Every structure is written in C-alpha cells, then in structure tokens.
C-alpha cells in the first residue's frame, strides 16, 4: 500500500533530507587519495549524531543479513552497498556515497558519485549522464502521470549515451520506513504503472553501468558489482510530489 504524506510530514522529511544533503557535502570534501572508506563512514556517523539524527543503514536487515556501517561506499566497478573498510581511495577512483538518516520518525536518503582527483573521460561522462538521468526522471513526478514515465525517461537518457541501466536494484517509496511501496524501476515504458499522486515521496536512484547491466554480489553478501567489471555510477534524491510538481527534499 502506498503511503501519501501530509504537508507537515513532507516538511519533516525535508528536514531529514537536508541533514543527509549537508553530510554528503562534507563527505565529498573529504574524498581524496589515501583516505579510507572507514574514515568516511566514521565522519558520516559523527555528523549524524551531531545533527540529532540516527543512521538509517546501520543495522538494516535484509534476507537475514545486517548492514554493519552508517555509509555505503562503492568504488569503481562496485554499483551499490559497498561496505566501508580500511581500503584507501586512489587517484582516478570513482566513488559512490549512499547515505540515509532517521529524523523525527522519518527517513532521508540520497546518493552522489564523485571522482578522486583526475578521473578518465569515460568516468566523467558516466557520472554526468547518471546525474542527468536522475533529473530527467524527477521531471516526470507530477500528479496524474505514471511511474513508467519516470522509468522510461531514466532509461532513455542512459541508453542514448551508450550506457546500461541496472535492473537488479530499483528506487523506492520512502517515509516512516526506508523502503516503502512502490518500487521505482529505472527502466520501463511511458504511460504504464502506478498513477502518481500528490503526497507520494519517492527515492529516485539511477544505477548505471558503463558496460553491461548484469550484476554480481560479492562474498560479503552486500556489495553489488558489475559482472563485466566496468565502471558504475549512482545518484539519488528523495522527492515529494506536490500540487506544484516535484519537490526535491534532499537538495540544498
């Protein structure tokens, strides 16, 4: 069942997502050669508690597994759900930062992908296209349109650039739970699927591979990687549908 949020609830979610956006901004500043992903995780957790919020991902259970960290950090061929460790970042790496909090009973969730120092032209184009696909999808979030309009906009943007959309993972509704109905695929046909309504809040998150769309899960049970080991990028915003159109909650 899809939960429609009131104007008051959307404003609480806005505050949660501003916390997410502010912390992601601080994490981006910290990304540099030699910094470990565990250091990024520690900073994310410290800032979360300073802002009177709780980590959304730490302790999250899925299929009998519990996620152990505050932040997801995915590097190069890692698509999503990379677990922070003592691995240091290297110049030329592409790093996805996926982060969420709980604040006043509601969740915030967003993600960015950044380069470490100078990165390849392919990496720059992959990140640019993935972020563009995110915003092309967001443009479709208007009452009366259908979920497939968003999905199709993302897929068309990605595939017209010669990249592929990950199908094994999708976006989601968000609110008092991190993952709510409906699932939000990044592929599909226009004018199909759930009718969009005022009060829906969706986490839109294109996951894009430079090569094929197939994925594998590493032995840790969480980290998803491209099967062909091509680069991947991931961008995400939590967005409310209002009578005036999309309201991007996780944008400063």
Structure description:
The protein is of the alpha+beta class and 252 residues long. 28% of the residues lie in helices and 28% in strands. The strands form five sheets. The chain has a five-stranded antiparallel β-sheet. Strands 1, 4, 6 and 7 form a four-stranded antiparallel β-sheet that branches. A three-stranded antiparallel β-sheet has the order 5-14-13, with no helix packed on it. Strand 16 and strand 17 form a beta hairpin. It is globular. The mean pLDDT is 98.
* Range of strand content: 25-35%
Radius of gyration: 17 Å
Uncertain residue segments: none
Output mean pLDDT.
98
**Structural class of the helices, strands and pairings?**
alpha+beta
CATH level 1 name = Alpha Beta
Percent helix, as a range, is 25-40%
Q: What would you give as the CATH superfamily?
A: Creatinase/methionine aminopeptidase superfamily
Strand order of the largest sheet: 10-9-11-16-17
The coarse overall form would be globular
Number of domains: 1
CATH fold-level topology: Creatine Amidinohydrolase
Give the name of the CATH architecture: Alpha-Beta Complex
Q: What is the overall number of helices?
A: 4
Through-space gap between termini: 30 Å
Quick take:
The protein has helices at residues 7-30, 37-50, 121-138, 147-160; strands at residues 54-55, 61-62, 65-66, 71-75, 78-80, 94-103, 106-115, 164-165, 171-173, 180-184, 201-204, 207-209, 215-217, 224-226, 232-234, 237-242, 245-248.
